[in-house]
Design a protein that fits this description.
- The structure is a homotetramer.
- Chain A is of the alpha/beta class.
- Chain A folds into two domains: 124 residues, NAD(P)-binding Rossmann-like Domain (Rossmann fold); 163 residues, Dihydrodipicolinate Reductase, domain 2 (2-Layer Sandwich), CATH 3.30.360.10.
- Chain A is 29% helix and 20% strand.
- Chain A has a seven-stranded parallel beta sheet with strand order 3-2-1-4-5-7-6, with helices on both faces. A seven-stranded mixed beta sheet of chain A has the order 9-10-8-11-14-13-12.
- The two termini of chain A are 34 Å apart.
- The mean pLDDT of chain A is 97.
- At the A-D interface, β8, β9, β10, β11 and β14 of A face β8, β9, β10, β11 and β14 of D.
- Chains A, B, C, D: It is an enzyme of class 1 (oxidoreductase).
- Chains A, B, C, D: It catalyses: N-acetyl-L-glutamate 5-semialdehyde + phosphate + NADP(+) = N-acetyl-L-glutamyl 5-phosphate + NADPH + H(+).
- Chains A, B, C, D: Its main location: cytoplasm.
């Protein structure tokens, strides 16, 4: 059994992580911290976990995280970087669901996240936890930077095209739609039900924090710079991301075959048959990414549709998948979930 | 392994049953029938099942249901009763998720369901599959009448009060709210998104088919007649039933203790602490019923709040729970699901 | 033209009031105050008003409210009572959309609202703005206490039964469902989209602030005490209240006729034909209340279904209706809105 | 007063047209036809219209449409073209909300709509009812082809860029999201609430009927061929279209100024300030189109965000706007609606 600590379990990625760990046969959840809610039973905050998680929130000091095998940070940005050095030195592996270790260029990170990085010397060794790209490096990671939700959907959608170099890399478009849980469990006006329901909008067209993360990932795949336009949108559903990706083919290629071959050994990426339109609910509550690839009217424009559950493959599920890899477990352990539909 | 057939797997109770059976360690799903869609892979209709259910729909004739151990009917009303005799005679046990065997009074059934009963002689031996009431009889049932969704939520909410005889039985009120999946996967105008979203309405105030089923259940608990007003409502959510139940206490009693004691050994009924308000999402995708009991302002009115997922405890999950009992398995096998929230 | 000031126009009742006043032919909106957002154009906060409301928010000091004919308070509870004396002395009439002047028993008010009343001497003269009960007194009101949303739906539903004395007044039940905008535009976790969508729950079963208001109204109609159980629920829609009301008839009476006669001269109360089920969307964005009355199975239980738009007849629309009455205008001026459906 | 007939008033564009005409000061609605529901009061089908529309549906034969000044067809595709000749010959003007007269190339129309055109000789004289392009020709139109919902949002978004020739016309992308009412009021499985809620999907990537209509419009603006990729999506809201449009600038130009100047005299197109993100609810129930234009990171990619209410500016509202133009009325008559938000 793996001794697990969770820092900051009061947000949506936190409760989702608890949902998954509660059924994981090798997970021994020993502590969940919350500064503000220490002492409260976890299931008082999240009644869905009644009977499944018996812990109370504890303060970080009481959590004895240094005796864990792995600690998940389901915190806002800027927390994990402050505690990483101490944990790593104590031999504890760290999985950060926030953004602290995602961007290799520290100055770039500091620009987008508006704060000074507390452990810049650890950034270089952190492994970006997209198993479909970095499985081998994840195995031995001490610090795992779990990808963002938008970056997961977009990278998995572009990956076969960009790795193989068959598209014009200077002009990629990612038009992405997210459910509202992607904005987190913070009390804010714009994500109130009466604001977000029966409504649709784009946001952050001028620049979203996930843009440099996606670009970094695509450039690593391409081995060169890429030009990317990324427009995120808020759609009135709880969970789910739908990425609609546009690129121009520079080489005539069977894109369906390209996708099928690239993902044939991937447990959690499902390439749909030609002509398909994946729905976000077809992956709801599961760790799957389903993708479909189109060439409308036989033109040189390729359209990729990529869907994930932002809280699972886009956050907690991918983190558990990475944990499984890091601890040499079956990669799908605890992730054997049939999507909930309708 | 139990050899299982499913008749009529193209509705919401059908796909939910498949979701549950796909992960049930003792379930060997051998055939799913659909007259209209025979030949189609199940996962073409339900992409959420891709990779989990490899069967194609077959015609009833091709299904060889008589070689199954148990056959689930996830059909419209009036189908199971036509095939029951043959299956029972072949030694196959039958679990009907529709209403054919729920009402013991055949004339009453025929009045509410508007058709002639095809196997009236089998009605008497059918067992009503509410484990919290009938666990012993379920064990040996050949024909299991799986309760309706409203009846499950209402009966589990009233049960401790009615069994113990502490309320005025002549004037019970059940004000119940259902998600739209309760209306099934039929193409109908009133359940279109643009009709049912951002909208709330009562329906069938003059009389709903679940009324006689609930009344029969309550009268069995009470050992006498009851007066019940039942008003169902449609609420804009996919899954979930919330029953708000009103009764007048005829005896002063600690209702919280009454509920806790009655349900202390029940795996799937969770009595919340005093003062709680269960949410439907706290049971989403799980087989749980969560209940809370109130006496506002210390008056003689007792208010019970009871929530279930209509497709699980209100349909497919309860059917699997009954199957587990019928086949002497651990009652929670395949039902070990942490509710999906948010 | 009536010179109008609005205090606190940044919540949902505020923006709804602006929507209505923007098209009211006799409304001359001269000032909208907001302490926090002074200086901001109103339509920067509410883009739906672009081109319709050109004002900026001003501080209360800059608003010169004492030169208005009427001032609406679309504020949290406890604000209007502080400014009422000064405005009334300046000859300005006041319409409070909050609760400061709704409860005649000041001690009772202070208990439920948890604060000391700042103008207890004005409470007695305030008129409760339910036109269907108090039209004559509204005409001359200096202080108008605009009813709450739940109280409007419940009182209009019970009114014909309680005024006529045909039901058992000791045991009335109001099971009421509200859209999420009823909770206001405050940033709170429980009304986030990801919390409130696809979910249903009761709340405040032990006691809700609207209970004493409803009881006071019903007792005024009855001329005696009443016993009321009131259970509010949150339903995943933006606008709308659906009240399901239960009472026992003590006299055999034609309830349909009773309702039709009582409301025959009311512009904004629509009694539906026998057997109807009003939907909340049938009144969306309008000032209508639609009601239907049932006697299921011919029993002595009468069930009333009453729907309103909580932001219109339950708040801003009723306030404008009262203003029209107070200023001797056509009662429907500015309220000539066809409900928006779907 | 204009004598108006409506053919096929039982769908969403029909009921929306009735909502608008009910308050139009020059509209004298004399007949609404429905083959299937003749005899039924309109407000029995649409309770939101109770008290506002007193007509009953009549058969086409009983409607005496030839005595109307104008007849709206709110029918499925293929109906208006059968009755057009007779009406036109009788001097009745015709506004078709369906697609019969939208595509000038009859062969192209027949390919996309899968039927033979019944009045090909009338296609040439039909005027495409986008006032922002064709106001002058609309004035004298005998047959008005009201634009589709997607085409309205996309064309108004691209118009200033394409008319002025500042973008690469060979590679335009329109990623468009529609509320579910766009699919109409037909009973179909995929638009059921339990299918479409909490879900997001693209559809018809291989080709949608609105593609040739949009392309025809853009080519008319450009005076040359254009390359367009159009991907429609279904989003879980009732009303609203959000078009996200991508193009590459071929000339460096102040796009904000370009849009503001082009639309400065348009009543129903609102160009938002730089940096804005229009929400669909900001136009809900109104005839407005709000657009914003971005150049992310100062690149050569221009992103246009364009929102409309699909049932108003995308259907019934635009039809009324065209009627106003055709009958020399104030263009905004009957369309003076403040958007309903929240």
């Amino acid at each position: 059994m793996i001794k697990i600590g969770v820092v900051g379990g009061t947000g949506y990625t936190g409760v989702e992580l608890l949902r998954l760990l509660a059924r994981h046969p090798e997970a021994n959840l020993v502590a969940i911290t919350s500064r503000g809610d220490a002492g409260m039973p976890v299931c008082d905050m999240f009644p869905s976990l009644r009977g499944r998680v018996d812990l109370r929130f504890v303060t970080p000091q009481d959590a004895a995280l240094d005796r864990c095998d792995v600690v998940f940070f389901a915190t806002p940005n800027g927390i994990a970087m402050q505690q990483a050095r101490e944990l790593v030195d104590a031999g504890v592996r760290l999985i950060d669901l926030a953004a602290d270790f995602r961007i290799r260029d520290v100055a770039e990170w500091e620009k987008w996240y508006g704060m000074k990085h507390a452990s810049p010397e650890l950034v270089a060794e952190a492994v970006y936890g997209l198993p479909e790209r970095n499985r081998e490096r994840i195995r031995s990671a001490r610090i795992l930077a779990n990808p963002g939700c938008y970056p997961t959907a977009v990278q998995l959608g572009f990956l076969p095209l960009v790795e193989s170099g068959v598209v014009d890399l200077s002009h990629l478009i990612a038009d992405v739609k997210s459910g509202v849980s992607g904005a987190g469990r913070k009390a804010e006006v714009h994500t109130l039900f009466a604001e977000a329901a029966d409504n649709f909008k784009a946001y952050a067209v001028a620049g979203h924090r996930h843009l440099p993360e996606i670009r970094q990932g695509l450039e690593a795949m391409a081995g060169q710079g890429v030009g990317l336009t990324f427009v995120p949108h808020l759609t009135p559903m709880i969970r789910g991301i739908h990425a609609t990706l546009y690129a121009r083919l520079s080489t005539d290629v069977n894109v369906q075959k390209l996708f099928e071959e690239r993902y044939q050994d991937e447990l959690f990426v499902d390439v749909l048959p030609t002509g398909s339109h994946p729905e976000t609910r077809s992956v709801r509550a599961s760790n799957l990414c389903r993708v479909a690839v189109h060439r409308p009217h036989g033109s040189d424009v390729v359209v990729v549709l990529s869907v994930i559950d932002n809280l699972v493959k886009g956050a907690a599920g991918q983190a558990v998948q990475c944990m499984n890899i890091m601890f040499e477990l079956d990669e799908s352990l605890g992730l054997d979930i049939v999507p909930v539909s309708p």
